[in-house]
Structure to design on (934 residues):
């Protein structure tokens, strides 16, 4: 229903000191009907970005278009109440002095919806988020999950074209979070609303998103599908942030050939501009390493074993060389001290220049 | 749920810089503050350096060298010092009794402190004159002529008398701050000292005392500032005893022809004293924070006083009698007597009330004026406070800290100084405000705006900005957000602030005395004028009417506020923070 196009968005607080900008030169194209996640570590500028999209924070530079309409440019910023977006806050921000009904109906009243339509709309929305029957409760009589639903309903009832969510699940317990995750995804599909979702939880981002924007230090690092971001990280920072990874230093021995310490050899597609003799880092996911006894390949010794239920994790020390984290099917059992051979699925590895960050 | 337009959607408008309603509201509030506080103060400053020809410091030289003014300064400081000392002694004793001992009648202590704080000091002063004026004071007559013990008489028209009357109003400042500090000292601090072998006394001196000292000092300084700022008691008791203080000397400078330059210079000198005292007070209060940092379980240990507790109880009762029973029963007795004297009870009458309410044509006007002014002033002070607090906490407006600071300045301005500044400012303006209700309103709002700002500020702080933001994103304008979200949420706090302004305004005398005219006369001024004219019995009747109106107004305001009482601690927070 709505696309968002962000160009060169920049914001720094305390212009005076030379602290890095909270958000700098951010470009982002969000298509209709998408679930897009802004993902990154604490303090990387996710909330700042979201609040600039909503209009609460005035950017220092850059533009924001919604459906091709300019809504934010330096010196020309449409205030939040005229952007027609919805937002769900981390702490819900459900009004404590209004009942569930009054909270949800607020936006409809502002839009002067006729009574009959209003009633139908309210019933539909409350049913959608499973709040039917709780209309007359005050927020302090609701559980955290229910308050969360009120916040959602309040934003959804006015059918915004864009819904902004700032870590909406982070205050819920693990079980509830899981449930709400599924509900949110379902909701987004059913309504077709464009969701911009902020989280620092990469598992959540992978599970929910159509596209993930990985942000670090106020800069966009990579923007792509979850599969892309996970399997083809654009740089070391992204690789490191998206789950467990082994970052192994290596040298380019020839075209498409890498040599790492411990006799590890890999045939990989090299990024442009990397020549023979360059120092690089290879990122290898633990699930892309095979351990075997007596195979061909680099030799390693098991130095630690952790049983995790659905998988077993080993630390395999290449001799001489780095220690790799390896995840295997639990049926495959090695003992600490066992000599093993390491095989790596090179198609799933990424190579970065050593100097990169 | 299908996505289709439901009624008129909120339009996504193109960017356009334009002034919105809230900009006008904020601008208006800032302008108000400038007109109320900043410009009058600047006028005061200018007035003080305006000499016979051009700018000069001659007013200051005069004020600092002429015995007339130096004496006033000296008397004010002496009054402040003694009042501070006795407020400290009484306040700390009562606070200690309430929070650390098993003394009976703790409720009585609370009641005494609250009532003493709420009583207009000029009424207490008048009551004490009825009892202790050197010749006709009832108690003096009794001990001298009936009991034949002339050495037991007490002349209220003396520094001692002035201190006595003032302390009755100021000790609650120390009491309230000290008792809340004592109650918040975690018992474990004291237990820790005792387990190391410290005696009770040693513990009190080496552990408890240092912990609560900042709060006590802070309360004492508040008592000091308050004491020296009171015009009514210093005029009623000081002037007959030839004890001229800063407020009464400034007042005298307005006798024809008014000496604006000298009045301004003296006012500034006055402000320097109050500001220094308040600065110290804030510094002490800031150090208080570590008291409450302790632990969660503040379970102060109660000391068993044994039979001595009746002695302490006696002290409590004595305070109650002197501060409340004596003044009010005296006023009541005088108001019903034909002629005040030893055998007043022989001729009781309602004539004084009849005269005051129906024949003396000032009373009804004064009542209406005071009620109207207090209601309007409290409402404006609180609303302005809400806007200023909101600007400070919710916007990134450059200079908003300065705004907040300006709004606090009046805390350091004695009423009479506010009056001196306003008179000069508005006389210089083309608007003829002098002598109207409007100038009184300006004085009251200006003087009490800090209470409004504090009340709004502390309530706003407790409200997550996201609550406002979520209304905004749904399309609510600033006004709608305020009306639907912000104001309902801070209403209890604002209401407490409203009462906090209403109560002092309805008994305000220090500024009113220079600003009123016969049409804009207020209750407190009416009482003071009638007293000055030499009436005795009708003054008491008017004083009682005054008290009834104050009491009724507080009662009604409390009812309207849904039982939310401007709690006693709230009262000092407003003044202390
Ligand atoms: N109002 C503000 N004033 C000054 N600095 C701010 C402000 N808001 C954010 N910042 C700074 O900007 C940077 C980005 O903050 P932001 O809130 O966007 O981070 P975030 O990615 O949302 O982090 P988190 O996951 O912890 O919520 C941080 O360094 C933060 O300290
Ligand atoms: Mg955040």
């Amino acid at each position: 229903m709505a696309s968002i196009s962000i160009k060169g968005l920049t914001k720094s607080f305390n212009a005076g000191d030379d602290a890095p900008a909270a958000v700098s030169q951010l470009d982002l194209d969000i298509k209709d009907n998408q679930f897009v996640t802004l993902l990154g570590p604490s303090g990387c500028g996710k909330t700042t970005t979201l609040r600039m999209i909503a209009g609460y924070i005035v950017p220092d530079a850059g533009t924001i278009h919604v459906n091709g309409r300019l809504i934010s440019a330096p010196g020309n910023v449409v205030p939040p109440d005229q952007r027609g977006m919805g937002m769900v806050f981390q702490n819900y921000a459900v009004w404590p002095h209004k009942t569930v009904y009054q909270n949800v109906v607020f936006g409809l009243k502002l839009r002067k919806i006729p009574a009959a339509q209003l009633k139908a709309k309210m019933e539909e929305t409350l049913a959608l988020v499973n709040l039917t029957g709780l209309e007359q409760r005050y927020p302090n009589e609701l559980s955290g999950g229910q308050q969360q639903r009120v916040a959602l309903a309040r934003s959804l009832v006015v059918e915004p074209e864009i819904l902004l969510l700032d870590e909406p699940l982070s205050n819920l317990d693990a079980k509830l979070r899981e449930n709400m995750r599924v509900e949110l995804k379902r909701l987004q599909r059913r309504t077709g609303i464009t969701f911009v979702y902020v989280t620092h939880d990469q598992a959540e981002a992978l599970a929910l998103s159509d596209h993930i924007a990985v942000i670090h230090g106020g800069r966009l690092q990579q923007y792509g599908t979850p599969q892309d971001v996970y399997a083809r990280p654009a740089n070391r920072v992204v690789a490191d942030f998206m789950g467990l990874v082994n970052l192994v230093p290596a040298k380019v021995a020839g075209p498409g050939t890498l040599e790492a310490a411990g006799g590890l050899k890999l045939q990989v597609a090299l990024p442009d501009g990397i020549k023979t003799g360059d120092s690089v880092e290879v990122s290898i996911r633990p699930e892309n390493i095979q351990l075997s006894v007596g195979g061909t390949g680099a030799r390693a010794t098991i130095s630690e074993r952790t049983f995790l239920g659905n998988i077993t994790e080993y630390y395999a020390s290449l001799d001489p060389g780095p220690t790799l984290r390896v995840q295997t099917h639990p049926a495959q059992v090695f003992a600490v001290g066992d000599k093993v051979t390491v095989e790596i699925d090179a198609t799933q590895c990424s190579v970065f220049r050593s100097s990169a960050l | 749920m299908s996505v289709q337009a439901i009624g008129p959607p909120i339009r996504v408008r193109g960017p356009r810089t334009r002034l919105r309603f809230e900009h006008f509201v904020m601008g208006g509030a800032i302008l108000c503050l400038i007109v109320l506080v900043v410009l009058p103060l600047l006028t005061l400053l200018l007035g003080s350096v305006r000499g016979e020809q051009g700018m000069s410091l001659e007013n200051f030289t005069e004020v600092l060298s002429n015995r007339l003014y130096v004496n006033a300064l000296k008397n004010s400081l002496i009054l402040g010092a003694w009042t501070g000392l006795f407020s400290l002694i009484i306040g700390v004793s009562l606070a200690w009794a309430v929070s650390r001992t098993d003394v009976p009648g703790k409720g009585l202590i609370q009641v005494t402190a609250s009532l003493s704080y709420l009583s207009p000091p000029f009424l207490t002063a008048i009551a004490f004159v009825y009892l202790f004026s050197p010749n006709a004071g009832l108690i003096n007559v009794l001990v001298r002529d009936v009991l034949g013990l002339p050495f037991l008489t007490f002349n209220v028209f003396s520094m001692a008398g002035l201190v006595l009357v003032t302390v009755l109003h100021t000790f609650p400042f120390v009491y309230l701050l000290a008792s809340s500090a004592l109650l918040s000292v975690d018992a474990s601090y004291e237990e820790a000292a005792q387990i190391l072998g410290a005696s009770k006394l040693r513990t009190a001196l080496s552990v408890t005392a240092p912990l609560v000292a900042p709060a006590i000092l802070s309360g004492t300084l508040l008592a000091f500032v308050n004491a020296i700022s009171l015009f009514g008691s210093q005029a009623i008791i000081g002037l007959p005893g030839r004890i001229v203080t800063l407020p009464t000397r400034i007042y005298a400078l307005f006798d024809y022809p008014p000496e604006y330059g000298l009045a301004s210079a003296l006012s500034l000198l006055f402000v320097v004293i109050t500001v220094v005292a308040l600065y110290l007070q804030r510094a002490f209060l800031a150090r208080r924070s570590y008291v409450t940092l302790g632990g969660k379980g503040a379970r102060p240990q109660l000391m068993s006083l044994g039979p001595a507790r009746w002695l302490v109880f006696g002290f409590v009762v004595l305070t109650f009698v002197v501060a409340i029973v004596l003044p009010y029963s005296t006023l009541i007795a005088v108001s019903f007597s034909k002629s005040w004297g030893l055998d007043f009870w022989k001729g009781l009458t309602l004539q004084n009330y009849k005269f005051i309410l129906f024949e003396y044509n000032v009373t009804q006007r004064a009542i209406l004026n005071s009620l109207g002014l207090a209601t309007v002033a409290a409402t404006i002070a609180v609303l302005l406070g809400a806007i200023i607090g909101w600007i400070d906490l919710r916007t990134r407006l450059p200079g908003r800290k300065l705004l907040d600071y300006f709004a606090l300045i009046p805390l350091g301005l004695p009423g009479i100084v506010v009056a001196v500044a306003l008179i000069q400012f508005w006389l210089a303006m083309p608007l003829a405000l002098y002598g109207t209700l409007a100038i009184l309103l300006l004085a009251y709002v200006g003087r009490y705006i800090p209470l409004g700002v504090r009340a709004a500020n502390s309530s706003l702080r407790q409200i997550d900005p996201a609550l406002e933001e979520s209304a905004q994103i749904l399309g609510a304008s600033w006004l709608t957000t305020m009306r639907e979200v912000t104001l309902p949420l801070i209403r209890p706090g604002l209401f407490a602030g409203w009462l906090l302004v209403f109560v002092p305004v309805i008994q305000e005398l220090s500024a009113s005395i220079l600003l009123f005219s016969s049409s804009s006369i207020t209750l407190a001024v009416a009482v003071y004028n009638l007293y000055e004219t030499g009436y005795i019995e009708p003054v008491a009747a008017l004083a009682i009417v005054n008290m009834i109106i104050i009491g009724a107004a507080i009662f009604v305001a409390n009812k309207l506020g849904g039982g939310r009482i401007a709690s006693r601690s709230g009262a000092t927070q407003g003044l202390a923070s």
